[in-house]
Write a structure and sequence with these properties.
Distance between the termini: 27 Å
Strand order of the largest sheet: 12-25-26-27-23-24-13
Strand content: 15-25%
Helix content: 10-25%
CATH topology of the largest domain: Rossmann fold
Number of domains: 4
Shape: elongated
Number of helices: 12
CATH architecture of the largest domain: 3-Layer(aba) Sandwich
Radius of gyration: 31 Å
Bound molecules: adenosine-5'-triphosphate, magnesium ion
């Protein structure tokens, strides 16, 4: 996921949706409100229906926030329902991860945890009802034969040669499919609707497939499993879902959704509504591609901090609040669109700026020796933890004769507008003193390995009694008291705003999505930093400790960079660079 400033959002606030405050008036909320007002429904019941064949991503967050949000706002309830109809692809690991991630995002299904597999028996009985009513049949065609007869958008399909089997033969075959008498794929049960329908979904859709595989919840009870279309609406009806909200690609399935509800004795009458899925620049939100990224070793796992999964974003240090805020800002619409990842970054920065404590870290250290600072001496200086929140308090940082500054903050032969450290130029070390550089030490290759500087003892705390100004304030750490740490900087996983998906997804993979800085320095206070809770490294960005840390080697990962090269809360007299 791109969290590195690729987006175009700058300081301005993103457009809020038409409703104003971003609080979310949208067409779905209008429908729900109208249905409550007219009495069509007594209270709103929604569901979030993930298939447990992968981890949740930020696109799912849109659906979660919408479904759970509606229930919260209108005093109804939202079910978490696992759409576990395909045991070939589904795993317990995914079920656990989905529950964890929905909770982390801030939602609670209470007692309303459901599984499509809870309804296998009822669904089966309904399938037999359709057979008895002459509205379903067992088809022995191969997949290819079925495909060849399906027709196209402009051409009607052709009836299957098995379409007119008798009810008895259909019942007998279907029961034997259920009993496990046939190999995988040998037959299917299809609805008998209309092979000439303009809507391909109505051309005798598949209701059941043979799959001789155990199911995590139903074990070896079943040798046939219902299709998504046959399971979904009926599950909604069983649970009393009032508004079944899904993404636009299901719009063409709605007539089928309704056909089942009309042709079966269901206990309630849900309605399906479609909204636009979330698409983000520099990001792929296809579960299939995300699975390939994990399986192919392109990332370290589903919770790799580069992944757009909720688990990856959490590990990266993105607060759940930022995701909810982002989803609120983008709103819910009926037309698909591509959202600039910069908009997401805006929400992440805004959330972190409020909460993240300030610390100092030097990512690429350059040694500085303060020649007029007494050897063996050191002193404690006071640093503030949050510029806008005095209650966050202060901490002590130690100053000494040997320090580290950022390599990028020094230039031996600076261009005109470079105001940071260079020979003869005075700068402020944040919370400490003014220093000046007067000599550069190089190794045999000519690389700068050390700076010889002097400090002005009268500038303690960072201000000169004579009122003289400096144009740069830099972060630093004491060589003796800071600790070594590894920094992991993540760049976008994809190099294009609209990466190739599908088979071709590796084409746009960024070969430099991870940059490791093994010799960074951190304040000792950071040893206690909590994983997943970012701090702001002054002038560098938001970072959090990673669970890969060991006692010898703390690891920090960059959640997101700062908007500017310089944090605003550092010296105001410093020009931008
Ligand atoms: P699959 O391709 O496997 O169906 P999926 O992403 O649709 O993948 P589901 O587990 O079926 O996975 O998704 C659960 C719910 O999340 C569905 O209601 C789906 O419409 C919604 N959803 C999935 N992706 C997005 C997205 N990018 N934006 C908004 N909602 C999404
Ligand atoms: Mg789906």
């Amino acid at each position: 996921m791109s969290l590195t400033g690729l987006g175009t959002m700058k300081d301005e606030r993103p457009e809020l949706d038409a409703a104003g405050e971003g609080a979310g008036r949208d067409f779905i909320r209008d429908i729900v409100q109208a249905d409550l007002k007219s009495g069509r429904v007594k209270s709103v019941v929604t569901r979030f229906p993930p298939e447990p064949n992968g981890y949740l991503h930020i696109g799912h967050a849109k659906s979660i926030c919408l479904n759970f949000g509606l229930a919260q706002e209108f005093g109804g309830r939202c079910h978490l329902r696992f759409d576990d109809t395909n045991p070939a692809k589904e795993e317990q690991e995914y079920i656990d991860a989905i529950e964890r991630d929905v909770r982390w995002l801030g939602f609670d299904w209470g007692k309303s945890l459901h599984h499509a597999s809870d309804y296998f028996k009822q669904l089966y009985e309904w399938a037999e009802d359709l057979i008895r009513a002459g509205k379903a049949y067992v088809d022995d065609q191969t997949q290819d034969e079925m495909r060849a007869r399906r027709g196209t958008l402009t051409e009607a399909g052709q009836d299957s040669p098995f379409r007119n089997r008798s009810v008895d033969e259909n019942l007998d075959l279907f029961r034997r499919m259920r009993a496990g008498e046939f190999p995988n794929g040998a037959r299917v049960l299809r609805a008998k609707i209309d092979m000439a329908s303009g809507n391909i979904n109505l051309r005798d859709p598949v209701l059941y497939r043979i799959l001789n595989a155990p199911h995590p919840r139903t074990g070896t009870t079943w040798h046939i499993y219902p299709s998504y279309d046959f399971a979904h609406g009926q599950s909604d009806a069983i649970e009393g879902i009032t508004h079944s909200i899904c993404t636009l690609e299901f719009e063409d399935h709605r007539p089928l959704y309704d056909w089942f509800l009309e042709n079966l004795k269901v206990p309630s009458r849900p309605r399906q509504y479609e909204f636009a899925r979330l698409n983000l620049t520099y990001t792929v939100l296809s579960k299939r591609v995300l699975t390939e990224l994990v399986r192919g070793g392109h990332v370290t796992g589903w919770d790799d901090p580069r992944m757009p999964t909720l688990a990856g974003l959490r590990r990266r240090g993105v607060p759940a609040e930022a995701i909810r805020d982002f989803i609120k800002r983008i709103g819910v619409a009926k037309a698909n669109s591509l959202v600039d990842v910069g908009m997401f970054e805006f929400s992440v920065r805004e959330a972190l700026n409020k909460t993240a404590l300030r610390r100092m870290a030097v990512l690429k250290p350059l040694k500085v020796v303060i020649e007029n600072y007494p050897d063996g001496k050191s002193e404690e200086l006071e640093a503030i933890n949050h510029p806008d929140n005095p209650e966050a308090g202060t901490r002590k940082i130690r100053f000494g004769r040997e320090l580290y500054i950022e390599q990028d903050d020094f230039m031996e032969n600076p261009p005109k507008k470079f105001f940071r450290l260079s020979p003869g130029n005075e700068v402020r070390l944040r919370y400490a003193y003014f220093i000046k550089c007067h000599a550069v030490v190089k190794n045999a290759n000519g690389d700068i390995i050390e700076l010889r500087c002097t400090y002005d003892p009268a500038t303690k705390g960072g201000n000169a009694p004579d009122g003289r100004k400096v144009k740069a304030t830099m972060h630093w750490l004491s060589a003796a008291d800071s600790l070594r740490a590894e920094m992991r900087l993540y760049n976008p996983l994809f190099t294009k705003p609209e990466p190739a998906g599908g088979e071709n997804f590796t084409a746009d993979l960024n070969p430099n999505s991870l940059e490791v800085l093994p010799d960074a320095r951190i304040e000792p206070t950071l040893l206690d930093a909590k994983v997943e809770v970012p701090v702001q490294f002054e002038r560098q960005g938001y970072f959090c400790r990673d669970r890969d840390s060991t006692s010898e080697r703390p690891v920090f990962i960059r959640t997101i960079g700062l908007r500017d090269t310089f944090a605003k809360d550092v010296a105001k007299d410093r020009p931008k660079s």
